Every structure is written in structure tokens, then in C-alpha cells.
């Protein structure tokens, strides 16, 4: 597009007065003002009405501050509030709020059309209100499909009609001799304050009319704040004057019973009728312009299912989203035919308050986190945004706690649905910043040394290629069971893998784990050999106090690797890292995961850690049906009685539910006993000797493997961390 065409396109767009102020004010001064404001004054009185107006306007004003902050931070495109939320909180939350927001906008059209139809039938009783509403919807829909600019221009004429009606009302005279009711009719006849609030609140939600036209504005970041504040100010002034006029010119009961009370009070009743018709039709048209654009934005971002992609299409010079507009017209026709003004208004209130709350939370969070990317021209302290969010939530609960719960339940269901679809958004979100702040807060409050009672495994898995040693990852996943961290580590050769390929390797492993439904951190490290790489990893990996405390690895089967392998184990122990070695001679894995045998030498160190690991495994879905058998060998029957008394007390205090068995050797070799007792087990746990002296551990480890080679999968456990593991159990 050349410069001339750019200027032409820009000039075709809307300014502050026509694009934001006019549609916002016309939506504020709409059907509720003409047909329900007298009812509001009659039920809660002058003071109650002024409170409702002030509270409603305060919430919308605080929300407008948040909207202005977000809108002046970055370029704003089509979609209004949905666009602002999704670009800050992410596609899932944006969609979860955007879909109800679209429905709220669509139902708003019904609200205004029903209001218009109600006023027409009051003057022409022979007409059927439903058919008036249907014909009106079709006419307005045709206008919205034809031209956005023509629709906006027609609103200037309508604003003149509203001004004429308000002047006519001010110049009118009292309908009857009456006293100003400060608190409405007696409590037995009146409606609850918060029910009245729910009916009135949609009157001030006009701030969305301008925001939803964001894609059609010349300068959204300038027009949205300026036009919205102007509309709120003018609307608040009018709504604070009207109750005084109404309360002083008719009794509360009259105000309640007569929806067209303004027509009777005004000096020229026809002006009120013209005002009602103009306001309701313009508000309906404004919502009929805004709602399809929210739907279009949802479709553009692929928030909706594939079949809804048609809603993203536009037509004509003004790029009107015609499919989205037709769909909105269809919803309006349905709700107009079956709807009721007093039933629709509270539903809209919940939808709008939910959207307002999320907008306020978005602005508050951005400001509180101090994100480098959040640099709005219109600066608002996060406290004001937080107050706006709390005000929305509080009012929702006071109006209807059950409806509030249902509103958030709907949003929650949509959020889960969107998250499962794994939408790939091309924009960032607040999520990473929020989590970073939480992590920072937690890291600085972690104890230097873990208390025994709060101990959890933080496992570093030396997996090599994940596909070849999957059982290591599987075991770590079962031990942590979503309640602790574990990291899958692969050491790659420096000579074969350049540094720039490391991130690609990590990405592939992450995808592989995700496909297996395993949540783990991933780290790929280059090193001359796997042993030095693993030692370097243990020395350097972690963040603050959040470092791995347990190393899980496989066995070495090559004699030439025995010395560096043993040196690596020794390094882990000296680094105070617990070691878990999975040794599986026949690659049979953990078979049915039904029986775990723990060969036990006592509660201290290795013995306690093995019990803890087995207990954690039992809490996982894969091992929950397993029987854990703790086996202990004593030399003879004389030692049996003392051992049994001791174990009875220990296991009663541990509360693990594990069975234990005391075996008497009576001259038999320990390894023969183990082979006989555990030959059919799915996992065998036993402690590992401390690898202190150089050379000695290599010989010990070779003998250990030789003596247990006929047994199924073994898990050797070495407790090295400076934690009294026995205190975790008792």
C-alpha cells in the first residue's frame, strides 16, 4: 500500500468523538434510563439511586483507568476488551473471557431491541412485541451489514433527539403532589437493593461500545481513554440529576408501576418517545457493530473451533465482518423472541462485571510486576486497578453469589477447553512474568538446609537418550508424582554436537516427554565424556537453594568405564547428593509393578531413604497396587525376638502400611537368601556402600553386581544428603 492509500484508509477511520464518545454515551443513555430508571428510583429512593449510580460509575471509572493503561501500552487492533486481555494474559484467558464477552454484547442487542419494542407496544397496543422486535432486529442488522460509517453518522442525529428529550423532561411539571422518597417504598413492597443494582448496572456498561470499535479507530490509544472518560463524566452528571427530577415529581409507587413515567412528566411527551426510540436503536446498533468484531477477533486468533473460521472473513470497502454479524443477528432474533428485559439485564451484569474484573486484574498485574514491556502513556497505580477488580468481584457476590459462581465456572470450563487445545499464540503473555515473580519470592524464602519434615526429592536423571533408558525417567516421574521436581539430563559429545544445536536437542526431548505426558525440566550439556559432563552438571545445575538432591542413573556395563563410573559415584556422594542406581541385567524393566522388596539393614541413612522412596512410589498411579515387603536377615532365632520387638515399634511409628519379614540365616549365605526370596519381585531395593576409598568401591561394585545378577531389576540406594531421613518417617 502506497502513502496515498495509507492516508485514504486512515481518513476513513473514526475519531474520538464519533468512534468512542458518541457510541459510548448513547449506550449509557439507553433503554435502562428511559424505561427502568423511574423503577429504580421508586424501589430504592433518591439516596439509594444516587448510591447505585455512584457505585456503578466508580466501578466503570476504575475499569476505564485500567483499559486506558492497557490501550496506551501497545498498538490496539480489533476485538476491544478481548484483544487487550488476550495480549496481556495469553490466548487461553483471553478466550475464556472473550467468548462470554461476545455473548454479553450479543445479548445487549436483545436488551435494547426488547426495550424499543416495549415502548412501541405501549403506544400502539395492537402490535405484537415479539414481531416488533424481530422486524427491528432485521432492519438494524441490514444497516450493520451495509455500512459502519453510515451507522456511526446516524448516531449524531440520535444524540440530538436524546438531548431534546432530556430538556423536555427538565422543563416538565410534577405529575402529582408527592414527597421525595429518600429510600423508596416500604421494604415489604420494594425490591432488594442489589437486585435493583443488577437491573441498573448495564446502563453504565457503555464504556465497551468505544473499546469494541478499536479496530475502526484512527488512533485507538488516544481515542479510547479520552472518549471513554468524557462519556463516563457526562453520563454520571445526567444520572445524578435525573433521580432528583423523578423523585420530586411522582410518588415511589407511581415510578414503579409506570415504565413510561418520563413521558408523562415531560413538557412534550413525544420527545421522550423519540429519545427512547433513538437511544434504544442506537445502542442496539452500537452493540451490533461491536459484538461481531469481538467474534471476528476470536476467529482470527483461532480461539474458536475450525468451523468458526468463517467469522474472520470480511467484506466490502469497510471490511465488515458479515458472517460474524449474521451470526449475531441470529442470536438476537432468538433471544428477542424468547427474552425478557428484567431477565436479560442481570445476566449481562454478570458477564460485564467478569470482563471488567479481568481487565482490572490485567492492568494491576502488569503494573505490579513492573514488566519491561509494560510502558503505558496513561499511567495508573496498580492499587486503583486492584480496587476495581475487588469492586467487581464484591458486587457480583452481593448481587447473586450462585450466578457469580456459575459465571466463573463457565470461564473456567472455557479456559480448560482452550488449554487442552494447546493454542499457539504469536504474542506473549503475563504468565511468564507472574511465574517468575512467584519463583523469585519462593527462592529467597527457601531454607539453606532442608528440614527433614519438609524434605522432597529433587531428582537429576542422567538418562542419556530418553528413548533408550526410558525406565529411568519413568521411575523419577513415579517417585516425584507431580509433587516434586526432576530434570532429565543428556550429556552429548563436544566433538559431535556444536553448541548451537544444544537448544534443538532440548526442544526435541521436551516434545518427546510432552507426548509421553511427563512433566520434567530438560538440560542438555556438552562434555568430553559422559562422566565428566555428569560431574560438571551436578556441580553447576540449579538455582539458589533449589538444586537437585538426588541423582538417578543407570548401571555401567562396560569394564573400561568402571573406574570413571565409580569416580563419578564418589563425586556425587562427596557433593552430598543421594544416589539411585537402576541395574537391569535383562532389560526386563519393572514388569507388572506389583511387588517391591526392600532389603533392610536398619532405620538410619540408606534404610530410611529406601522406605521414603517406596512410600512415594506407592502414591503414584503406576505403583499404587504394589505390595512393599521390607525384609531383614538376622543370624539366628535368638536374634529374631529382639529384632521383631524393635521392628514392631518402628513400623507402627512410621505409618507406611508396609509389611515386614524377619528371616533367619541359620548359617545360610545372605545372597542366597536374597536370590530365593526376591526372584519373582518387580523391584528390589537395597543400600549401597559408601564409596570412600579409591579403588575399593570398584571392587565392591563388581562383586555386588555379580552376586545379584540372577535377580530382577535392582535399585541401589545411597543416602548422602545431610538430612536425618529417619525423622521424615517418625
TrEMBL record:
Domain Amino acid permease/ SLC12A: 20-460
Gene3D superfamilies, sorted: Amino acid/polyamine transporter I
Keyword annotations from UniProtKB, A to Z: Membrane, Transmembrane, Transmembrane helix
Transmembrane segments: 12-35, 47-72, 93-117, 129-149, 156-173, 193-215, 227-246, 266-289, 320-338, 344-363, 384-417
Compartment(s) of residence: Membrane
Domain SLC12A transporter C-terminal: 471-582
Pfam families from the UniProt entry: AA_permease, SLC12
Example GO molecular function: chloride:monoatomic cation symporter activity
Membrane-topology descriptor: Multi-pass membrane protein
Cellular component terms (Gene Ontology): membrane
Chief subcellular location: membrane
InterPro entries listed in its UniProt record: AA-permease/SLC12A_dom (IPR004841), SLC12_C (IPR018491), SLC12A_fam (IPR004842)
Superkingdom, taxonomy of origin: Bacteria
Protein name, as recorded: Amino acid permease-associated region
Native species: Cyclobacterium marinum (strain ATCC 25205 / DSM 745 / LMG 13164 / NCIMB 1802) (Flectobacillus marinus)
Amino acid at each position: 500500500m502506497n502513502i496515498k492509500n495509507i492516508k485514504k484508509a486512515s481518513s476513513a477511520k473514526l475519531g474520538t468523538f464519533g468512534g468512542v464518545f458518541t457510541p459510548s454515551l448513547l449506550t449509557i443513555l439507553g433503554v435502562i434510563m428511559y424505561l427502568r430508571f423511574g423503577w429504580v428510583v421508586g424501589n430504592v429512593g433518591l439516596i439509594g439511586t444516587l448510591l447505585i449510580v455512584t457505585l456503578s460509575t466508580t466501578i466503570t471509572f476504575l475499569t476505564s483507568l485500567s483499559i486506558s493503561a492497557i490501550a496506551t501500552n501497545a498498538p490496539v487492533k480489533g476485538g476491544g476488551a478481548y484483544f487487550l486481555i488476550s495480549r496481556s494474559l495469553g490466548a487461553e484467558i483471553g478466550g475464556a473471557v472473550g467468548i462470554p464477552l461476545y455473548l454479553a454484547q450479543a445479548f445487549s442487542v436483545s436488551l435494547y431491541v426488547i426495550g424499543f419494542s416495549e415502548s412501541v407496544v405501549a403506544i400502539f397496543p395492537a402490535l405484537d412485541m415479539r414481531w416488533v422486535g424481530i422486524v427491528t432486529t432485521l432492519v438494524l442488522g441490514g444497516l450493520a451489514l451495509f455500512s459502519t460509517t453510515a451507522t456511526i453518522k446516524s448516531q449524531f442525529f440520535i444524540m440530538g433527539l436524546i438531548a431534546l428529550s432530556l430538556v423536555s423532561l427538565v422543563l416538565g411539571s410534577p405529575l402529582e403532589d408527592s414527597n421525595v422518597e429518600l429510600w423508596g417504598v416500604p421494604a415489604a413492597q420494594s425490591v432488594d437493593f442489589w437486585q435493583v443494582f443488577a437491573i441498573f448496572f448495564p446502563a453504565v456498561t457503555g464504556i465497551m461500545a468505544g473499546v469494541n470499535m478499536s479496530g475502526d479507530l484512527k488512533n485507538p490509544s488516544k481515542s479510547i481513554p479520552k472518549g471513554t472518560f468524557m462519556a463516563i463524566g457526562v453520563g454520571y452528571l445526567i444520572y445524578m440529576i435525573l433521580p432528583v427530577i423523578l423523585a420530586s415529581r411522582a410518588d415511589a409507587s407511581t415510578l414503579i408501576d409506570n415504565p413510561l413515567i418520563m413521558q408523562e412528566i415531560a413538557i412534550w411527551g413525544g420527545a421522550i418517545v423519540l429519545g427512547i426510540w433513538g437511544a434504544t436503536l442506537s445502542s442496539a446498533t452500537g452493540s451490533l457493530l461491536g459484538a461481531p468484531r469481538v467474534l471476528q477477533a476470536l476467529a482470527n486468533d483461532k480461539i474458536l473451533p475450525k468451523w468458526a473460521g468463517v467469522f474472520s472473513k470480511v467484506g466490502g470497502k469497510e471490511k465488515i465482518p458479515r458472517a460474524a454479524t449474521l451470526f449475531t443477528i441470529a442470536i438476537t432474533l432468538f433471544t428477542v423472541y424468547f427474552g425478557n428485559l428484567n431477565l436479560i439485564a442481570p445476566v449481562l451484569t454478570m458477564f460485564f462485571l467478569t470482563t471488567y474484573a479481568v481487565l482490572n486484574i490485567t492492568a494491576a498485574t502488569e503494573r505490579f510486576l513492573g514488566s519491561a514491556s509494560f510502558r503505558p502513556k496513561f499511567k495508573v497505580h496498580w492499587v486503583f486497578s486492584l480496587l476495581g477488580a475487588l469492586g467487581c468481584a464484591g458486587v457480583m457476590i452481593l448481587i447473586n453469589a450462585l450466578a457469580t459462581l456459575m459465571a466463573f465456572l463457565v470461564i473456567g470450563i472455557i479456559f480448560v477447553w482452550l488449554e487442552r487445545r494447546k493454542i499457539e499464540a504469536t504474542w506473549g503473555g503475563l504468565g511468564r512474568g507472574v511465574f517468575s515473580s512467584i519463583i523469585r519470592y519462593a527462592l529467597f524464602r527457601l531454607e539453606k538446609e532442608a528440614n527433614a519434615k519438609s524434605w522432597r526429592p529433587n531428582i537429576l536423571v542422567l538418562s542419556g537418550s530418553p528413548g533408550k533408558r526410558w525406565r529411568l525417567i519413568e521411575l523419577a516421574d513415579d517417585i516425584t508424582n507431580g509433587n516434586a521436581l526432576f530434570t532429565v539430563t543428556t550429556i552429548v559429545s563436544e566433538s559431535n554436537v556444536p553448541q548451537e544445536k544444544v537448544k534443538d536437542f532440548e526442544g526435541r526431548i521436551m516434545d518427546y516427554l510432552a507426548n509421553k505426558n511427563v512433566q520434567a525440566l530438560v538440560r542438555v550439556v556438552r562434555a568430553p565424556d559422559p562422566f565428566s559432563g555428569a560431574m560438571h552438571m551436578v556441580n553447576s545445575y540449579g538455582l539458589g537453594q533449589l538444586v537437585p538432591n538426588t541423582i538417578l542413573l543407570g548401571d555401567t556395563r562396560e569394564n573400561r568405564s568402571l573406574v570413571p563410573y565409580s569416580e563419578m559415584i564418589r563425586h556425587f556422594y562427596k557433593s552430598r547428593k543421594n544416589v539411585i542406581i537402576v541395574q537391569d541385567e535383562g532389560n526386563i524393566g519393572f514388569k507388572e509393578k506389583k511387588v517391591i522388596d526392600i532389603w533392610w539393614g536398619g532405620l538410619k541413612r540408606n534404610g530410611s531413604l529406601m522406605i521414603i522412596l517406596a512410600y512415594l512410589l506407592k502414591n503414584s498411579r503406576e505403583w499404587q497396587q504394589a505390595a512393599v515387603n521390607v525384609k531383614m536377615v538376622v543370624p539366628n532365632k535368638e536374634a529374631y525376638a529382639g529384632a521383631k520387638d524393635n521392628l514392631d515399634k518402628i513400623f507402627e511409628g512410621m505409618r507406611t502400611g508396609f509389611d515386614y519379614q524377619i528371616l533367619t540365616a541359620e548359617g545360610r549365605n545372605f545372597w542366597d537368601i536374597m536370590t530365593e526370596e526376591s526372584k519373582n519381585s518387580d523391584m528390589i531395593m537395597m543400600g549401597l556402600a559408601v564409596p570412600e576409598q579409591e579403588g575399593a568401591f570398584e571392587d565392591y561394585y563388581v562383586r555386588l553386581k555379580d552376586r545379584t545378577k540372577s535377580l530382577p531389576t535392582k535399585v541401589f540406594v545411597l543416602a548422602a544428603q545431610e538430612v536425618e531421613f529417619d525423622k521424615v518417617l517418625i
